[in-house]
Design brief:
Number of strands: 19
Largest sheet: 9 strands, mixed
Bound molecules: iron/sulfur cluster
Structural class: alpha/beta
Number of helices: 14
Number of domains: 2
Strand content: 15-25%
Amino acid sequence: MWPYFPDLLARPVPRYTSYPPATQFTEKVGADAQAKALNAVVSGTPISLYAHIPYCQSICWYCGCNTGAAGRTQRLHAYLEALEAEMAMVAKMLGGRGKLQRIAFGGGSPNAIEPIAFVRLVDRLVTMYAGNNPDISVEIDPRACSLEWAMTLAVAQVSRVSFGVQSFEPEIQAAIGRIQPVEMIETCMASLRARGIKAINFDLMYGLPHQTNESLLGTLDHVARMRPSRIALFGYAHLPHIFPRQKRIDTAALPGIEARFEQAAIGYERLVSEGYVPIGFDHFALPDDSLAIAAAEGKVRRNFQGFTEDQSDVLIGFGASAISQFPDAIIQNEKNPGAYREIVGAHQLAGKRGLIRDTEDQLRAHLIEQLLCTGRADATCLLNDPAALASLRQLEERRLIIRDGNDIVMTEAGRPYARVVAALFDTTLPVMGTGSLAA
Ligand code: SF4
């Protein structure tokens, strides 16, 4: 079992899907910076594309995504039209310089749109960006995964599907507003596997209302039987002041901080005992999955989609709230789908807020990524900073890290504290150093 340090778990640190983190985004960096970054893409640069569908057939109470009820067909069509227009605008600016590696569809629920509209989007992207057999992944809401969708995904040559599962426990599903029986997921998986889509991810959660160690293990019994290729096991973040839909969740039914920690540990132990390879602090993959293979080769990366084997340094996001990442800039599109449509309708890029990364930021981003993905990073930049050095020593005394020359190496006990260790490299946080990491 991992050692329990509540003071470290209580420390508010970013998830580091980027550095500097999204909290540093400013409206001073928007469409102009986006245009400059796109124009600077050099011929042959590997690029990955992400398309955001901010609609779902029904809204789950725990959800922290930028999404709304699909509702009127006309609104969906107008959004898809804008999405296509944005894709075309960016493709024109790139002028064929990017080398398309991957396309990811997320949301929201990409299967909130019509299957035929999805096929059209894939076709447009592959044509506009001259894709040569790119990896295509799609997030799918199992409650809306029909036979027609399974056939559509196969026809569109989708290679990976992610299911939002969270928990198989009926009481928990009722408490989070997402009812999906085990048989529903089994049928979806069987349907996809029969059509050649073998790479299937599950998103699971701990820290949900009424969740106990036993109910988590019950969910993992089903997971072990179904054997998805990858699993992400996230802790539920209850932030009703930011996501009003979470007000429907009974705060009194949520597990406390120690119970959450135990659930994360139990989940980790069970998945590892089932043969899954742990990746970073919340992902797991079967040994023959491309993420586990990348981990064995020291090639795991971290971007807005979490831990990934995607090696592209340029990620271009389309749609409301989508984020584009370049080596020296990160730009997020306008979040409101209506405002997004208007901007794109006026033939402008939709970048609304973001940040520019100088050389120092890029170095720190690399160190944080290395630490989170491989468990090791060069700590030379911390050694002349007395405050950072004091924090580092405290983590060392707790056996969460060890020193190897100028490198710091995470121990197995340090895995649940990986983001706290990564925060040593983060100069955007207010206080670092002596006392800040003390017991
Ligand atoms: S289906 Fe997914 S994106 Fe849509 S509301 Fe539920 S959790 Fe959020």
